[in-house]
Specification:
By secondary structure, this protein is of the alpha/beta class. The protein contains twelve helices and five strands. Helix 6 packs antiparallel against helix 7 (158-170).
Length: 293
């Protein structure tokens, strides 16, 4: 049996309950935890505790206090429980300054699948939603996208799922192909989520290929001639150079941003075509609901 570690911060002199999470033990306040979590309130005392928890032996006590062991099947990580305590004791609350890893820890530990702190879970969900787009946002990327998507699926946060799916699916080819060992993400998606991202990418490419390779036409013949001349060097070739075919939102944003007036397109046609390209971004975003279903 591994030696248990008395937590450096949360071994409180006036604590009234000892909680074990994995190989760490915490001396905290019973009424505070029980008020927020029926799961913790219902846990039975442990039959034994490690000597590092004040020689509890077979008494099930440490420092004269009842010890409860969070069951391994709840899969509560010690660092997640610590983050939950940091919020409860206002040492590091889940507010707008909270970093992703802390929000993720509190979201997991407070969920009904683990310790079921419903009020705190709601706060963590709201903060998670603030950290990621809820609508189409070209060029959005995040080093936490894979873990955030897993959390959004596991804990049913639909508002941010689509942007995360899109970001992961469309940036899967960012690594330099000449690199012998491209860096791997810190968090690995499950096979099921990876397959959904791959399927989404295939659908995006199938939809956007004819859009990209069809030269734009305008209401004026002279403007149509400009598009015919400039479409390859200004639109198609850049998209081929940087995987733009895989990223319709970003490629459309680049097309919108081209100074078409400087190329000779009249102001009326520029307005009309930009409105069409913006509408196409909306069409891609809307179709993703079906592609992900």
């Amino acid at each position: 049996m591994p030696a248990l570690r008395r937590h450096a911060r949360y071994w409180l002199d006036d604590g009234s309950l000892v909680v074990r999470a994995q190989d760490d033990v915490y001396k905290v306040h019973r009424t505070l935890l029980h008020r927020h979590s029926k799961v913790l309130a219902a846990l039975p005392p442990s039959s034994s505790a490690d000597a590092n928890a004040e020689e509890a032996g077979e008494s099930g006590k440490a420092d004269g206090l009842v010890v409860v062991h969070i069951p391994d099947e709840l899969e509560v990580k010690s660092e997640d429980f610590e983050a939950l305590l940091e919020h409860l004791y206002h040492d590091a609350p889940v507010d707008q300054s909270a970093p992703f890893d802390k929000v993720a820890s509190v979201l997991r530990a407070s969920s009904k699948e683990q310790l079921d702190f419903p009020g705190i879970h709601s706060i963590a969900r709201s903060r998670m939603e603030e950290m990621f787009p809820t609508g189409p946002q070209p060029s959005f990327t995040s080093p936490h996208a894979e873990e955030a998507l897993t959390l959004a699926v596991t804990h049913d946060i639909p508002s941010i799922r689509k942007a995360l799916y899109y970001s992961i699916a469309t940036h899967s080819h960012d690594a330099d192909e000449s690199s012998p060992s491209p860096p791997s993400p810190a968090f690995k998606l499950s096979p099921a989520l990876s397959a959904r991202c791959d399927a989404l990418l295939s659908s995006l490419i199938a939809h956007f290929t004819p859009v990209l390779f069809t030269v734009a036409t305008a209401g004026h013949m002279a403007c149509t001639d400009v598009f015919a001349e400039k479409w390859m060097p200004l639109v198609i070739q850049p998209a081929l150079d940087d995987n733009g075919l895989c990223r319709p939102l970003e490629t459309l944003e680049r097309i919108i941003g081209i100074d078409w007036a400087a190329e000779g397109v009249c102001a009326e046609c520029v307005r009309e075509k930009r409105a069409e390209w913006r509408a196409e971004q909306g069409e891609v975003w809307a179709r993703m609901d079906g592609w992900l279903s």
